[in-house]
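Q: How would the structure tokens look for this protein?
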Amino acid sequence: MADLRVKLYDFILKHPVMPAAGPPIKDAKAAAAAKKGGTSAIVTKTISTKAAKVPRPNMAQLKSGFMNTELWSEMGPDKWLNEEYPVIKELGLPVIVGLGYSAEEISELARKVEPFADALELSTHYLGSDPSPVIESVKAAKKAVDLPVLVKLSPQIDIAKFAKAAQKAGADGLVLINSFGPTLDIDLESGRALMGSENGYGWLSGDAIFPLALRAVFEAVKAVEIPIIAVGGISRGEDAVKMIMAGAEAVQVCTTAILNGPTVYSKIAREIDRYLEEHNYNNLNEIRGIAQDRVPKKANYQSKTPKIIIENCTGCRLCITSCVYDANYLNEDKKIVIDKEKCAACGLCVTRCNFAALELNWD
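A: Here is the predicted structure in token form.
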């Protein structure tokens, strides 16, 4: 078994997988379920000075992912302070308390939640090109409490610019990304928008935004020296491994916990462990950030016709169906053959193969 522990500030995570601030930790009961499901920490649903009035309906599974109009907690701060945080603290896991949204609100709340928190995660409203709200929120939190302060960033910004601004303001870490949007989907039966928000707009999360989140994490790691916690479309161990290869210290999951329940935390951790063992890595530090030096810095035309692992081929023809260059075919033994003269080395067949019969060829 590989060593999955992560040293994060003054606490140690048994593995890098935890919830994101959202419905999976909407209260103390949900936090207890997450602990039973194997999470390494508790990240509470963001609170503000007033309870949120959440539109109904506000969540939907889509063919392309997941959409929501979730806001901050539907419970006010008094209920959290008097009933939820004390119980969550007794669970014995590191607690990262989610706070939002303005500097004034964060300043007021930070002092109140400090006894229950090992760190704070700040959420600001979706931003344009001005990092001032992030800067002001971080400074307000740092002035109010002596705790590590992380700030969550949305993808619709200049990642490097905002990351550097947050670090300069005193942030101890970044969490990225938030869900992407606004987006829209329509119910075919009624013709109405699926979400109950103004204009019917929502925010996209889940598998569909993973490549966006991975790029954002990759950019943030390049830009700053503070720890990065990755979130956005992480639903399996290989997603978490990719985020750590990009340089993330740990990962958060939300949509997959909503859809599949709290056991996903231990499931993803086991899958990370299996990957490390199968690839002869002893711990997460051996893979953390390795993609930073392996991703092309400019256009790369070096890949060649994919390698074939013939014994793995099942003859399913998936790679043949999707080859627009007509380079793939089956031989008389129903095994894949690639015509090197026709192959454009686009790589699509490798990513579509479900049986590890094809590999990218960088020779």
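The chain has two domains: 6-293, 304-361.

The mean pLDDT is 95.

Upvote if useful.
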